[in-house]
């Protein structure tokens, strides 16, 4: 009988995932020499974050705490916050690509990017990428699917929260953020947000990856690009990518047509590590997706719309997610 790896059943792993050190470092990532920084995985060149890019630069991006109004599942009005990465030299007269980045179970809106007073190494690495020309200046938004933080939330509720977040994302978060910061949307009308979907990415780690698959299935109007990392699609059931890979793949393929899109209207860059607890859940789903006509596998974003990056020995930590984001952002928004 196939062994299914569950995120909820490995609560201690999720708690570890949600913890960061004050400097954003982790023993999960070893020190790299210059020769070790470059890892080639089949067609995709995966680069580890160099040590010199894990430190602050002069005049880096601002991190701003952004407040917005939304409703909880019961319909009650609540105030929530997200951290927004605002690139150095931000100018309201310019248009910026934007990524929405979701944490894993037990996390919050600062676990991945940090706070203005205490950024993580991910913030510094993105600063360096923009400064050295590997990445266009862009906005990144770090929200949370928890209505009031993770404290007291039972783990069996987390999957439903990632699903409920889709309404908040579409109706409240995106309009609030993109009426405040300059993106490619001319306004926050549904028409203009859809017209600018080519400049918008959703990515997430672990339960944030589950959130990303929900966004693909339900919010293609607002996003062209998706990067689910270390988490499968739970639309049919928990761990659906492992337990029902063919059915889950078909559900996702059907969702494209049901939202009135086709194969050329999206790109999914999925990733995980061979020692990640999500590996046995995500891999069967991707394999089944590759069997469907709507998913065209490869790295040419003009001809293909699906890629799966598997990194040897990578594990299930926020710090490894930083490494994936460091590679994913230039893939979509590099110069």
Based on the structure given, which CATH architecture is correct? Answer: 3-Layer(aba) Sandwich
Number of domains: 1
Structural class: alpha/beta
CATH class: Alpha Beta
Beta-strand content: 15-25%
What name does CATH use for the topology?
Rossmann fold
**Number of helical elements:** 9
What form results from the Cα inertia axes?
Answer: globular
Strand tally: 10
- Note the main sheet: 8 strands, mixed
> Separation of termini?
47 Å
CATH homologous group name: Alpha/Beta hydrolase fold, catalytic domain
Percent range for helical residues? Answer: 25-40%
Write a concise keyword list for the protein shown above.
two-stranded antiparallel sheet; 335 residues; 9 helices; eight-stranded mixed beta sheet; 32% helix; 10 strands; Rossmann fold; alpha/beta
